[in-house]
Amino acid sequence: MNMALLTTPRLHLRPLDAGDRALHRSLYTDPVVMREIASPLTASASDRAFDAVLARVGGDAPRYHYWVVEIRAAGGEAIGIIALHRHDDGAEIGVMLDARHHRSGIAREAFEVLVPYALDNLDLSFIDAERADDGHARAIDGLLLPLGFRAQAAPTSGRRRWRRDRTAGRAAVGSSPRED
Ligand SMILES: CC(C)(COP(=O)(O)OP(=O)(O)OC[C@H]1O[C@@H](n2cnc3c(N)ncnc32)[C@H](O)[C@@H]1OP(=O)(O)O)[C@@H](O)C(=O)NCCC(=O)NCCS
Fold first, then answer.
1. Does 95 contact ligand 1 (Cβ within 6 A)?
2. 155 pLDDT above the threshold of 80
3. What is the CATH number of the domain that holds 122?
4. Which residue's CA is the closest to the ligand 1 atom numbered 22?
């Protein structure tokens, strides 16, 4: 299945490939980037995880899709990874950005293009996201609400799940958030 190169004013989003091992390592071994996710990986554990990532991509019906976030003005410097993991007839989204680029609207700019693209072109009925009630709760909620994600019942207390349905359509983007 082909994944398009996506362009925003500041970014290119391109499919991850075998040349992205160092980017993957820089993200997964950084204690700041990993703070709300898990303990940082060692370099060798990150490399093993990257091998597993590479084994998942490609093919006719991949269950995982990965995009690399590049800064256009920096000559295409790679600063993050966005992942979509298919489940049921939708997918779960996750994002990790280099800490030097946090809080400058990069995730928002990327999601504004990637979420509609994925819903329209990857045969997904919905995109889900989940977060803990932790230090990134405000960031994740601030990212997802304006993009038309709606809060769902979370499976465990202390967490929150979000869903953006394809049928919500583009009219949902920018509308007032509603919670179930
Ligand atoms: C979470 C993360 C993806 C956010 O990306 P970002 O590019 O910094 O986010 P943006 O600048 O696009 O901001 C999106 C919204 O979140 C808010 N926000 C971002 N970081 C925040 C923070 N640390 N605290 C409070 N709000 C924050 C922004 O203000 C904005 O909301 P607003 O427009 O209402 O103000 C980024 O911090 C990151 O990669 N963190 C490490 C990995 C991680 O924890 N990923 C999430 C789990 S998969």
1. yes
2. no
3. 3.40.630.30
4. 139
